[in-house]
Amino acid sequence: MVGSDENHPGVIRPTNIQGASQARVGKFAAGKGHNRRALSTIDRNIIRAPPYPCVVNKRGTLSENYGLSNKNPSVPAHRPITRKFATQMARQQQQQLPKESKKPAQPVPVPTESEDYTVVDVDEYKAASDSPAQMFVQYAEAMLNEIDRMDEVEMEDISEEPVLDIDSGDKSNPLAVVEYIDDIYTSYKRVEGSSCVSPNYMAHQFDINGRMRAILIDWLIEVHYKFELMDETLYLTINLLDRFLAVTPVVRKKLQLVGVTAMLLACKYEEVLVPVVEDLIVISSNAYSRKEVLEMEKVMVNTLQFNLSVPTPYVFLRRFLKAAQSDKKLELLSFFIIELCLVEYETLKFPPSLLAAAAVYTAQCTLSGAKRWSQTCERHTNYSEDQLLECARMMVTFHQKAGTGKLTGVHRKYITSKFGCAAKSEPAHFLLEDRFSLGEENVGVVFCATQVSPGISI
């Protein structure tokens, strides 16, 4: 293509542009004989293809930047302009000039380094048609979609509850054995089945029943409280009692002796200062002799094959309370609820870990007034909220009747200020959405037995 007269060397001063970067920062020469190249050849001689897909757009209106009248008011003035689009607009302006006019068009100003400009990716402004309005609308829609997508991702991240590291604060405590704690509770969970008994073992007893067992355990809880024994001792006592009764027939007049002996064995395993045999005989109203207690002790340990190291609900309860980030109030209420379950024969169908998890869940619901089970609790207990509901509803019924009937040992213990008056808490009635889902016998438990303290009478 032959250039027009405007590009004659005598009219236009030769340029010294070595690349696109200099074209961006070039300045206009002033005076005669120092005019820039005509706009008709701007895309060929001045503006060269850059090594990267970006354009330079000076902020301002179309008429300010290019000397054009904005005939399309729908196109925003701050819209980024690509080189291709700027060239097309310049050519359209040149074609509108009279043919006889030989006056060169006004050169396109190039922003200097000191002026404000915006670098925009050209690929983001490709349009399906030549309409500038469509280009802008498509770009705006793409940006809005991207913002919505980022907001959705952000909301999903916020909604996910993180699982807390509950052992991070005990790394400097060697007694916490942080390095092995997960393996320890994995082992507890694996072997807890061996410490469980059949939930209907009373069917094999010919002279005792579940009501008599409840009377005995309610009394043992009072003895445990009077002797100020450790919590671990009580849970191990109940475990030894049930495991022995599950395999050995016992007459009712020896049932209290079995209970006293089970507590003696648990004290020897857990306590530092063990109550002497004479103390246990006195608390039993001298119903048995020292010789009978020691003989029953030998029978019991041989029947249980000296296996006293079993995971009780207590070890799981301690771990689960830590996962729940509990305070003293939640802790005492959880122990109150689970001790109510120790008395009830029907709770034997639940493994110790589920019983402990349900106690924490029920206590949380009781204090907060709503269902509450965090991802951290689910992770460390391995029980979901749905898996705990059956046991939790049963616990609520026990809580409702804790202060009524004849067996009120647990209620009297936890109504004192020493245990935070946990028994005064209002039960979580909202958990009982379907009262008949547990069976009619679980909803209305009636105790017909009588208790004689310090001994018991069956």
Structure report:
The chain is mainly alpha-helical and 458 residues long. The protein has four domains: 5-123, no CATH class; 127-160; 170-191 and 311-458, Orthogonal Bundle (Cyclin A, domain 1), CATH 1.10.472; 196-310, Cyclin A, domain 1, CATH 1.10.472.10. 47% of the residues lie in helices and 2% in strands. Strands 1-2 form a two-stranded antiparallel ribbon. The longest helix has 28 residues, at 132-159. It is elongated, with a radius of gyration of 43 Å. Mean pLDDT is 77; it is low at 6-34, 39-47, 51-77, 113-118, 125-130 and 436-458.
Terminal CA distance: 119 Å
CATH superfamily heading of the largest domain: Cyclin-like
The tally of structural domains comes to 4
Please give the CATH architecture of the largest domain: Orthogonal Bundle
The quaternary organization reads as single chain
Tertiary shape: elongated
CATH class of the largest domain: Mainly Alpha
SS content category: mainly alpha
> With helices defined by DSSP (H or I, 4 residues minimum), what is the helix count?
18
Q: Supply Rg.
A: 43 Å
Low-confidence stretches: 6-34, 39-47, 51-77, 113-118, 125-130, 436-458
Query: Beta-sheet strand percentage?
Result: under 5%
Return the average pLDDT rounded to an integer.
77
- Quick one: biggest sheet? 2 strands, antiparallel
Secondary structure tally: strands? 2
